[in-house]
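Example 3.2
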Amino acid sequence: MDIDQRNIYLEDIPLDEVFARLEATLKALDRWGALAAESVSLTEALGRVTAEPVWARISAPHYHAAAMDGYAVRAADTAGATETRPLTLAVGSAAFPVDTGQPMPPDMNAVIMIEDVQLEAGAIVIRASAAPWQHVRLVGEDMIATEMILPANHVLRPVDLGAAAGCGHHEVAVRRKPLAILLPTGDELVPAGQVPSPGQIIEYNSLVLRAQIAEAGGSARVFPISADQREVLGAALDAALAQKPDLILMLSGSSAGSRDFTASILRERGQLLVHGIAVRPGHPVIIGTVEQTLVIGVPGYPVSAALTGELLVQPLIARWLGRPSAFDERPRVRAVMTRKVVSPTGDDDFVRVTLAHVGERLLATPLSRGAGVITSLVRADGLAHIPRFSEGVDAGQEVEIVLYRTQAEIEGTLLAMGSHDPMLDLLGQYYAASAPGYRLASTNVGSLGGLVALRRREAHVAGIHLFDPESASYNIPYIARHLPDVEVQLITFAHREQGLLVAKGNPLRITSLDDLPRVRYVNRQRGAGTRILLDFELGQRGISTDQVAGYDHEEYTHLAVAAAVASGIADCGLGVRNAALAMDLDFVPVTWERYDLVIPKAHLQDPKLLALVQVLTSNSFKAALGQQAGYDISETGKLWP
């Protein structure tokens, strides 16, 4: 391949320099400021940005109006009226019946409420005088003609539409919505709704970016997926340019791979401004212009694509609308990192975290760092920014977090750390439904990791299933060893069945752990209760870990073990029966074990914990858990001393 057609990074450009290049280029194209105005009906204006101030065309009200149901009078005619010396006013000459909102009759300057008068034939009797302009809405009380009602660059709310209509408008001048065209590229991509074959990937970055653009106030059109062929990409770009957009996003075509042509196309047909920014994730971003249209090459990995949308695309849309960036306006808090994070030197590193208040501290737990881990986007409560050259943060260090959730949601978060169990999601579902405002967030660090988290006061609760060979019992001996100075309450979640997850039909005829020396195994991480159980069982059988091929292949959840077996990476792995069903695998029973929740007694008065215990012991949750394969609820909710 010709060297000019390859995507070789130009340099790692710092984020502030990227914005400087964008600003200089767009200013030269006269595209840096807010876009031109267009008039839209008030019925279509919700969420749009005003392009100019809205001035009142008429006053509101534009006449003196009665503010109460009653009788319009001249205040001077009521002077001297008291309970003991009532006055009588003739209806039709000194008093006129009015309803709320009706114009005041000529020369009348007060309203007496209907409940404060006594009706007589052709007259009313009053027992108190009326002050001038009592119960009268004066002309312009709400808005006066020529008064500014709404400023420019204001996002229109429902109440704003009413105010604009009330002062004489039926249309409003708003910023034209910036138009972005998205070009998904990749031979391996298939549209959402199509079942992918091996080697194919569902294309959903366009869904995320399109929504981000809409959230920022722009509009987006998504073109069909283009193949990784230079001519095809060029034709897609031409079709996009013909739509006269403000921005073109070429999705997935921005790595250093030999089949990514975005950079070379921009270099040949326009100007290549940036190829490679000093940001993780999102390093291989491309920025350029073609025919005076800005083009951004967005990385294919979903976490990188989403961050590119937050850091580059949404701020551009906001600038074209004359608005501050939504990212800059998000609330920020300080939180303590629960784990060490190592960052690449020279890059601005953005780490998605879960947040929870444990005791007096707000704790941030980093989520999986892979650029392809879409679940980290869903689970994230906030985004930690680790600046360039800092090389990361240590556990216990305080960092600034950009919030994705409200403070109230974070206050209502109960953090569970420890061993993975698929049915914790079921518990979380019942918890959220029965205790509105609360949610259960869980992090899989293994049973021993959960106890360590409790010792460090980094979690509210830990899930454990640790077998002690000496006492032939579960969990209590480990709590005594690892939490000697912490008073805890142990509550049984369930007894669950552990066994070997094997391929459908069990083609290798695996019948017990005795077969492990002849097959490929996938293990759980150090400190996981399942791994401790395996080591005990291997010792009982006299099988050395060196005899087990794949013993060092570690996964962090039962479902990850099941996925490894289902994909053929391993022949078997130890896990719960429910994980086998989830991945359509066969299951070879090994043992039943007790899975408990450990709660420091210091947390038991927290309403979040009380609500969790109530859900765990409820008949509805236990019935739902008991219907799951491989779970015994006979001791669910039992308290242990």
